Amino acid sequence: MIGFLVWAINNLISLYILLIVIWCLLSWFPGASQSALGDFLNRLVYPYLSVFERIIPPLGGVSFSPVVAVFVLWLVQRGVQMLGTIL
């Protein structure tokens, strides 16, 4: 049971990281963030990223908050994996 929970949480975090990457890539194309996919991703990803945008200001017009957000998710993912090996 614990193994399944660790597997499920690990895959959900990986999926969310992928959604953040796609959200970032959509920002490179004009009008893509206003599409149905862009709106859907914005509703899923932006609430989490906004926490980091308040802490990390953009440098030269480039926001590094998605990088930090993905790194934090990666750390959580590793913590869940370590906890799964202990339990």
UniProtKB/TrEMBL annotation:
Q: Which UniProt keywords apply?
A: Membrane, Transmembrane, Transmembrane helix
Annotated TM spans? 12-31, 55-76
| Keyword Transmembrane helix in record | yes
Family annotation (InterPro entries): CCB3/YggT
Pfam families cross-referenced by the UniProt entry: CCB3_YggT (PF02325)
Entry's family note: Belongs to the YggT family.
| Name of the protein in question | YggT family protein
Q: Which organism is it from?
A: Limosilactobacillus coleohominis
Its lineage opens with: Bacteria, Bacillati, Bacillota, Bacilli, Lactobacillales
